[in-house]
Amino acid sequence: MTTFITKQAYQLIPGDQVQLASHPDLQASATEERTHSPVEIAGRVIDGLISIRLVDMEPVLLGANDVLKLKVPAILEFPHRLLLTENDADERLDVGFAFRDSIVRDNLVSEGNTFSHPLDIYGLTPENHKALVDFNKAIDDAVEDAINAFALFAGQIFSHDARVHQVRNALIEYAVLEVGFTKNTVQTESSS
What we know:
Elements: E1 2-8, E2 17-19, E3 36-42, E4 49-54, E5 60-63, E6 67-71, E7 82-87, E8 92-99, E9 102-105, H1 126-154, H2 163-183, E10 187-189
Antiparallel strand pairs: 1-6, 1-10, 2-3, 3-4, 4-5, 7-8, 8-9
């Protein structure tokens, strides 16, 4: 069984892992070893067409509304519903999951640090745990990048301001909602 999500070509963003066999103009690049390729550059839509460049491939012109299959990001295969948990020390939100009437953070310690167990007790694989850790880190990186970009524009550094947590918390709330929504779009097909 293979899991995938779909996107129209105009919705592709850098990093999306396109299943090469999912589009006639990409099928010739598919091999047993290379079934997916990440989007490197997605152009603008002009006259209903969009230029897409995949890593190590020449650009290809696709219909903007062409549907492509994508590899499912690891966080979408996380076996538990993602929940927000607040770090009491700095009111910063982190992503965790429910376990035995508590919320477990990505370091696998419950709120209040009352218990910690091996991965299998939580029903997690090492890949699941890595996906959760990476998701929290991606949020931190995105907030840092956004603040640094604004700092360059404004000529000030804001990285130690309490408002950084407000920006991060808003972004993490949005990201968890998007993951929950996108999880519902994951499809499965039999491997042939």
